[in-house]
Amino acid sequence: MRFDIISTFPEFFAALDLSLVGKAQKAGVVDIRVHNLRDWAEGKHLAVDDTPTGGGAGMVMRPDVWGRALDTVLEEGAVLAIPTPSGKPLTQRDLEALVQVPQIVVACGRYEGIDARVAEHYGAEGIRVFEYSLGDYVLNGGEVAAVALVEGVSRLVDGMVGNPESLVEESHSVEGLLEYPVYTQPREWRGIETPAVLFSGDHARIRRWRRDRALARTADRRPDMINALVEGGKILERADVEVLTSRGVDVRTGRWDYSFSVAEESDLSEVAALAARTFPLACPPTATETEIREHIDTHLTENAFRELTRGGASITTVRSGPELVVVAYALCEPNAPDDIASLSPGACYVSKIYTDPEFHGSGVSGALMEFALADAVSRWGSTAVLLGTNQSNRRAIRFYRRHGFKKCGRRTFEVGKRIHRDFVYVRDLTVDPPR
Ligand code: ADE
């Protein structure tokens, strides 16, 4: 792979003699030649620039000087790369395409840039001209961007990076996600522990944890990348959907629609309305309408929720859409009821978690569960959580299992005069869910 860099500051490129690129040069894997543009300048002052035609600030680089330089340096099959803040943002895909060509000539402009006829002329001559930008900010010249391109392409050349896997897993790889956070020794540093899952030796869990972190990080820092993944149908796993939902993305519509919060007094009437809508759907088929109505009228009113929060419970909600309607809620209590508390002494309790049926399968319930449990841990310091669910509710049972709950007992539960049988589940809150 051959690079020719033309610049008025050739000394700048001493940096390319260092590190891996320097080694690759010595090993003959890449051939980097740096040229001084002034070698092609003429006249007493060896001027390479002049005032902008039509007026304006600064100076523009002369096409005749660049023409002489490029005619000398360009070879068959070359790409002419011109760094400029008005170029196309440089991406990993561009680097992957550039590593295929035999020669890249980088023309470093200074001042206000290079006369536009240079790119036009070489383009018309059949040379591939690639005007690229490092980002939406302005540097003093193209030198930094030239180093970025040469280093970025060089590390893709065969024989460069020692471990080929590090090329596959990194940020901006084909996965379309930023890389997950990385850790090394010591295990604890300035009071910050390395996440325990990384010591588990359980490769599936580690992979899942890393993917969760990569998705969350990408959603927070690069929503544009998440939009591209969602549009391209690349969010395939259920756990992916939950992570993105927790960051606000509705992967079904591609809209950033969800917000998670701890309910305040003013939210409770909406929570009660949702509770009344969703409770009948979770009842076993044997429950009569009167029994269900009675339960709603006594336990699922705004007042009943107010009493619960005054008694120390925490209600968390998910709102969605332009109207920010409450579409799911969870009710957690610091202690489990007496009949099951002994199954995990000190555990907190998920008393209810209900999602509008329109949002079943959307990832909302799972994201809310994790949000509610994180709230419980920070509020009460809980290390475990208990919950009960009707023995016939297969969908709920599958959901709790997926979220790291294990069956630990049974209880009976009364709706009206009828006795319903629940399984009781527990989850250790000191480890991440094994998704
Ligand atoms: N020259 C000056 N600013 C630049 C940028 N942001 N990217 C590429 N080349 C530049």
Characterise this structure.
The protein has 435 residues and is of the alpha/beta class. The chain folds into three domains: 2-169, 3-Layer(aba) Sandwich (Alpha/beta knot), CATH 3.40.1280.10; 188-243, no CATH class; 259-428, Gcn5-related N-acetyltransferase (GNAT) (Aminopeptidase). It has 15 helices and 18 strands. It has helices spanning 19-26, 63-73, 92-98, 117-124, 143-154, 165-169, 203-221, 223-231, 238-246, 268-282, 289-299, 302-310, 338-341, 364-380, 394-402, and strands at 2-7, 31-36, 49-50, 60-61, 79-89, 103-107, 128-133, 188-189, 192-193, 249-250, 255-256, 258-262, 314-320, 325-333, 348-355, 384-390, 406-415, 418-428. Strands 12-13-14-15-16-18-17 form a seven-stranded mixed sheet, sandwiched between helices. The protein is elongated, with a radius of gyration of 31 Å. The two termini are 44 Å apart. The relative contact order is 0.08. Adenine binds at residues 83-85, 133-135, 137-139, 141-142, 145. Residues 83-85, 133-135, 137-139, 141-142, 145 line the site of adenine (ADE).
Keywords, please?
435 residues, alpha/beta, Alpha/beta knot, Aminopeptidase, 3 domains, seven-stranded mixed sheet, five-stranded parallel sheet, 15 helices, 18 strands, 35% helix, binds adenine
